[in-house]
Each structure stands twice: as structure tokens, then as C-alpha cells.
Amino acid sequence: MKSCLLCGVGGQGTVLASRILAQAAMNQGLFARTAETIGMSQRGGCVVSHVRIGEYVSSPMIPEGQADMMIGFEPGEVVRNLSYLKEDGIVITCKQVVQAVTASLSGSDYNAEDMIAYLQRKVKHCIVIDGAEICNICGSGKVLNVALVGAAAQSGAMGISVEDVKAVLAAKLKPQFLAMNEQALALGAQCVTQ
């Protein structure tokens, strides 16, 4: 069984990314379970999605220390949830900060470079992608989730290929959004060297 924890801030597409991963696995004939824990169910709240894939999956929730991979839409959220990652797990994170509403309300502030430096010290396999650049190239801020899934697929950690994800996109997206999402998928994949 493979487990992936996705974490970010509401409105970034975390839940949709988890559904893309799960559908790619199901298209391979595997069993997939997903669950979300959402701090504030509005744009700007903390969002964590659990994805578990395998021949048999009894529970959608990933126990601490059991995630093969973490996909971080926001580096501070990865740091906050790092206890879920296996010792030899992989982290793929976007380097841009999107501060959650809870942090803004508390008056706390942090630096993305500090968070990424911490992750690179603590995690053997940490891949940082420039989500803002990819979104700029693709012409939409709404493709970050697909770029991160592309990097995750390219890493091989979940047993899902970039082509598997591409097939899900072709089946699920409206034709007018397909090309830019395929471009984001490819750019995300290019950020990973195996």
C-alpha cells in the first residue's frame, strides 16, 4: 500500500489533486481511499487530504509516520504536518507562501526560505518547485495542483505515471482547460530527476 498526504490552504486545489491521484490508481485496477481534514471549509483555511492506494486499503486516514509522500501546496503546511512522513519518504512542495487564515489572525508570520531550509535538513528526498513560475507559464494560477501531481507522478513514489495522470485529466476536464493542465503536468514532472 502507498500513502500520500497532501497539505495546503483552502482554494489551492488540494482536494482535487487527491481525487486525481486516486482516479489514476483506480484506472490501474487498484483500490483507493481518500479523506480530507479541513480546518476551515472556506478559502484560506488549512486543508489536508489523505490518499491511500493498494490492492486493499482498510482506512483512508494515514497514521503518523506512514506517508510515503507528502505533496505541499504551501511549505509551512508541510512543516506543520511533517510527522506523517515515513523516515525515507519524499516531500514535493511549492516554494511560495500562502498564509492560512489562522496564521493571519494570530498575527504570526514566517519566511518561506526558512521553512524550505528546515524541510531540506529534515527530509532526505525534498523536491521544491516554483509553482508561481509554472502557473505564470501556463497562464493560470489554477494549475498548481496539476503541476504538483505531475512532480509526484514523475517521482514514482506512488506507482502512478505521468501518463496515468494525463489520462485522468483528459477524461475529467473540459476541453478548453485540457492543454494548459497538460502543460502544467509536464512542467511539474520536469522538476523531478529520478
Explained architecture:
The chain has one domain: Pyruvate-ferredoxin Oxidoreductase, domain 3 (3-Layer(aba) Sandwich). The longest helix has 16 residues. α2 packs across α4. 46% of the residues are buried. It is α/β, with parallel strands linked by helices and 194 residues long. A six-stranded mixed β-sheet has the order 2-3-1-4-5-6, sandwiched between helices. It has eight helices and six strands; from the N terminus they run βαβββαβααβαααα. The radius of gyration is 15 Å and the shape is globular.
Summarize the structure.
With 194 residues, the protein is of the alpha/beta class. Helices cover 44% and strands 24% of the residues.
Name of the CATH architecture: 3-Layer(aba) Sandwich
The first-level CATH class name: Alpha Beta
Tell me the count of domains.
Answer: 1
Radius of gyration over all CA atoms, rounded: 15 Å
At the fold tier of CATH, the topology name is Pyruvate-ferredoxin Oxidoreductase, domain 3
| Protein structure class | alpha/beta
Mean pLDDT: 90
**Main β sheet profile:** 6 strands, mixed
Q: Could you list the spans in which at least 5 consecutive residues all have pLDDT below 50?
A: none
* Topology, number of strands: 6
Rounded to the nearest angstrom, the distance between the terminal CA atoms is: 21 Å
